[in-house]
Amino acid sequence: MPLDIKLYCADWCADCAHLxxxxxxxxxxxxxxxxxxxxxxxxEMKAINxxxxxxxxxxIGETVLIEPNFNELNKAIGITGSI
Length: 83
Prior knowledge:
Layout: E1 5-9, H1 14-25, E2 31-34, H2 41-48, E3 57-60, E4 63-66, H3 70-77
Parallel strand pairs: 1-2
Antiparallel strand pairs: 1-3, 3-4
């Protein structure tokens, strides 16, 4: 069963751009939610991650990762190896 992955991000965030590239490089399907351009997205993200205004925030099923590194993502998604 495919994972439900949401990436809360912003255009100005370099770490967000790196994660988008990481997901595409690894052919991981995800929903990109821009907190600056999507009405209500910032509030939704804060409700999910305990009120924190930090991006990137990644939601994988029931797991919330705030500013994750690639090893944390690999583990959560089930990708072996490291970047």
